[in-house]
């Protein structure tokens, strides 16, 4: 699950309150799903992401979902909508870096819990790695 969940439990009044607030926030995203070009797969992967300007300080996070076109990153590290980022995914031959842009920032009662990232158009080796990762996930393997 997303990093920082323990602090949200306190804010939302325990686990039940946390789940109610989280589900309500996720329901707000349903309209966005209709606009997506690629099917998203629910998966938790350990990844890194960072700004183009500061590639030395990548932030560790986990995913909530992944597609050919983007992902949702669970993190309490907020970034502004529109910021250019690089996401580092696990690949068979080492990490795969994919550039993208933050499309939305999600929070609960002012506490950030994640970022929606839209990948730049990818092709070649990067696309093959994402496709391979999605096939593994669909087959029950999670790297």
Cα-based radius of gyration, to the nearest Å:
15 Å
**What kind of sheet is the major sheet?**
6 strands, antiparallel, barrel
Structural class: alpha+beta
Task: Give the tally of β-strands.
Answer: 7
State the distance separating the first and last CA atoms. Answer: 16 Å
CATH class bucket = Mainly Beta
Oligomer: single chain
Name given to the CATH architecture: Beta Barrel
List the SSEs and their pairings.
Elements: H1 5-12, H2 14-27, H3 30-35, E1 41-42, E2 46-51, E3 59-66, E4 70-74, E5 84-89, E6 96-108, E7 111-119, H4 124-138
Antiparallel strand pairs: 1-3, 2-3, 2-5, 3-4, 4-7, 5-6, 6-7
Helix pairs in contact: 1-2
Describe this structure in words.
With 143 residues, this protein is α+β, with helices and mostly antiparallel strands. The chain has a single domain, classed as predicted glycosyltransferase like domains (Thrombin, subunit H, Beta Barrel), CATH 2.40.10.220. The chain contains four helices and seven strands; from the N terminus they run αααβββββββα. A six-stranded antiparallel β-barrel has the order 2-3-4-7-6-5. The chain is globular and about 35 Å long.
For this entry, give a set of tags.
143 residues, alpha+beta, Thrombin, subunit H, 4 helices, disordered N terminus
């Amino acid at each position: 699950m997303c990093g920082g969940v323990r602090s949200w439990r306190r804010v939302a009044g325990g686990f039940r309150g946390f789940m109610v607030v989280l589900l309500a926030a996720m329901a707000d995203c349903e309209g966005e799903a209709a606009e997506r070009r690629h099917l998203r797969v629910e998966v938790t992967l350990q990844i890194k992401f960072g700004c183009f300007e500061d590639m030395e300080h990548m932030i560790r996070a986990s995913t909530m979902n992944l597609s050919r076109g983007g992902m949702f990153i669970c993190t309490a590290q907020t970034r502004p909508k529109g910021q250019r980022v690089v996401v580092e995914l696990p690949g068979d031959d080492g990490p795969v870096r994919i550039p993208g842009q933050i499309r939305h920032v999600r929070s609960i009662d002012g506490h950030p819990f994640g970022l929606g990232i839209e990948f730049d158009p990818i092709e070649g080796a990067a696309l093959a790695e994402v496709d391979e990762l999605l096939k593994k996930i669909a087959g029950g393997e999670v790297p």
